[in-house]
Description:
This protein is α/β, with parallel strands linked by helices. The chain has helices spanning 28-37, 52-55, 76-86, 104-116, 139-150, 159-164; strands at residues 2-6, 22-23, 26-27, 43-47, 64-66, 92-96, 121-126, 129-137, 168-172.
Amino acid sequence: xxxxxxxxxxxxxxxxxxxxxxxxxxxxxxxxxxxxxxxxxxxxxxxxxxxxxxxxxxxxxxxxxxxxxxxxxxxxxxxxxxxxxxxxxxxxxxxxxxxxxxxxxxxxxxxxxxxxxxxxxxxxxxxxxxxxxxxxxxxxxxxxxxxxxxxxxxxxxxxxxxxxxxxxxxxxxxxxxxxxxxxxxxxxxxxxx
Length: 193
């Protein structure tokens, strides 16, 4: 299993790269990287081409995976599939860089649940909505999504639509975990930190 920090978004609503925002002494991407690394798995960071120079000042080039230019997909699915194409045999534990409240204990719980009950994908369910940017996607499931894409059968490129094509297991988000799933998309959201 490989950990994947999803940092390749456009950050249009924030107006600046969310992964490079500081929280204490670290960037958001560094914090997500550290949390995933603490689970003793290799970790990579998904970035887009424009982000590469700035991320190379913070991370080793070998830990960065650039969105595959051959994929005409937008959003997080592009980053996830780009990592999958580099590591086609690995299951991926993904974490969005803007989930800065996520705790390592919950990530560890997710991994343990997946190991005990493997599925195409394992994500959290928060008030009847998937939390697709903190979850585990099996190599087999990503092969299926990629095949749909290559056959022009992936009608939408949203994570929700991708999950609808898979056999998904989910874990309910308990009240004590709800704040872990807060993400920050605008400058005004930062006032809630």
